Amino acid sequence: MSMATPQTAVWHHRTPKTRLAMWAGWLACVALFVWCWEMMTERTIWAFVYDAPVAANDLLGRAFPPKWDYIERLLWPLWDTMNIATLGTLLGIVLAVPLAFLAASNTTPSRHILRPAALFLIVASRSINSLIWALLLVSILGPGILAGIIAIGLRSVGFIGKLLYEAIEETDIRQIEAVTATGASQAQILNYGIVPQVLPTFFGISVFRWDINIRESAILGLVGAGGIGLQLQASMSVLAWNQVSLILLVILGTVVVSEWVSAKVRHAII
Amino acid sequence: MLKIDGLGKTYKAGDKALSDVSFEIPKGQVLGLIGPSGAGKSTLIRCINRLVQPTTGKVWLNDLNITGLRTGELRRARRQIGMIFQEYALVERLTVMENVLSGRLGYVGFWRSFLRKFPAADIANAYRLLDRVGLMQHADKRADALSGGQRQRVGIARALSQNPELLLVDEPTASLDPKTSRQIMRLIVEICRERGLPAIINIHDVVLAQQFSDRIIGLQAGRVVFDGPPSELSEDALTLIYGAEDWTAMRKGADEDAAAEAEERAEAQKMMGAL
């Protein structure tokens, strides 16, 4: 073949080989979807599905209107829920901040021992859902708010720790170098060079996690760890659907408010 | 007085950044360090206060061998060496005053610095320096609210607040316009004269280097290939440092820049007069 001149050269985004591979990939996806669909229809009890509109109608009929005067019994558990979320977040922050500094590759005092250990703790905390943490803690500490707070705290450690150590690793090295060049000690470099750079991210992460924790602590009561979830559990077990609907509305309202607060705070800092 | 003796640096990847660099700087001398990108200018400056660890050779500041110091001693030595950076390297989210006072970190304990309770003398000196660089009214602004030239002035005040015996200046004008570059260079050199402070100014603008320094050292691939007064920096010397290029045209270009700048200023004055 002769050399392509600038006028005749043809450009393709992908080589023929990549195009063939992509086509085969799409074919495999379609085949997998068809196979899954077959399996799903085979194992569904269709009698229940045909019945669904009637069942849903029946449930909604029992749930509405919500039992408004039940709100008196919800205010105190709601307060508990918010306390679980807030105190749990604070506990998470207290544990996560030192872990983040140990885990960040530019601030860790020991790259081969403490850093992997801190990273492991962060991953471990993240890999267990707060509901599972609560289940474990209720069986250790007994039911109540304390188990809820600690469950939320332990789950938050991983979230805050991970995002914070990533922020620490992304700090501008030149600012740190400049503080180092003045003869500052390690602690002073941390305080003057690194902390100012990660502070906005830190507040953003903390408020975001608090917002998530409000949602999570609302269901912790299902396993006995206090808060409004206890009421939800009780109402569901006696099939008081008009109470359940009120509880869900209250949770929705709280989440909307907490989301608004967290958005406002983050906007103010960043 | 600074004495550099057989300094060499080989990076882990095997790149030889510096080899066998030796020179002395007497008190009060302003040294312009020129050379192409990658010649080792930044590495040389950073080896002096050991932000980069030299592989071979020694650095003497007065009677102190900086290359031999351990962590605590090195911190005390760094207090005596002020550094001004390319693109300012201010802590952006701290105020101008906090940035200037951070030059005192080597002298105060952690808790004092944490609580921002610096000694009254340090604060008075910081205000004096801010006044000297013309930023008195900006003391409580955040560093990222200032313009480029203003930020570099804060960088100068921070370095001076250390009360240094040597100034290391790394590409101070790299991100500034030509006029601000001149002002910043003039300010640095004036301050060095006032205090009899020796300085190494690492700069890629040959015309600025010639205009403002007492002595020029040219680096090429980590070696000193020129060492002499600015007047001796001939075209042959520049070719030795940078490789072949039309140096007369470049100098003419710089003259034209200066002429245009002067004309612009005259024009502006005329307009002000008309108003």
TrEMBL record, chain A:
Residue ranges of every copy of the ABC transmembrane type-1 domain listed in the record: 78-262
A GO CC annotation given for this chain: plasma membrane
PROSITE patterns linked: ABC_TM1
Cleavable signal peptide: none
Keyword Cytoplasm applies: no
Top-rank taxon, per record: Bacteria
Membrane protein topology class: Multi-pass membrane protein
One Pfam family of this chain: BPD_transp_1
Keywords of the record: Cell membrane, Membrane, Transmembrane, Transmembrane helix, Transport
Subcellular location: Cell membrane
Major localization class: membrane
GO molecular function: ABC-type phosphonate transporter activity
Chain ranges passing through the membrane: 20-37, 84-105, 217-234, 240-261
CDD domains: TM_PBP2
Family: Belongs to the binding-protein-dependent transport system permease family.
Protein name: Phosphate-import permease protein PhnE
Organism: Roseinatronobacter ekhonensis
Source lineage: Bacteria, Pseudomonadati, Pseudomonadota, Alphaproteobacteria, Rhodobacterales
From TrEMBL, chain B:
Sorted UniProt keywords: ATP-binding, Cell membrane, Hydrolase, Membrane, Nucleotide-binding, Translocase, Transport
E.C. number(s) listed in UniProt: 3.6.3.27
Keyword Disulfide bond part of the UniProt annotation: no
Top-tier EC class: hydrolase
InterPro entries: AAA+_ATPase, ABC_transporter-like_ATP-bd, ABC_transporter-like_CS, ABC_transpr_PhnC, MetN_ABC_transporter-like, P-loop_NTPase
SMART domains: AAA
GO terms of molecular function: ABC-type phosphonate transporter activity; ATP binding; ATP hydrolysis activity
Matches recorded under PANTHER family: AMINO ACID IMPORT ATP-BINDING PROTEIN, PHOSPHONATES IMPORT ATP-BINDING PROTEIN PHNC
Record domain ABC transporter: where: 2-246
GO CC annotations, alphabetized: membrane
Protein name: Phosphate-import ATP-binding protein PhnC
Region (Disordered): 253-275
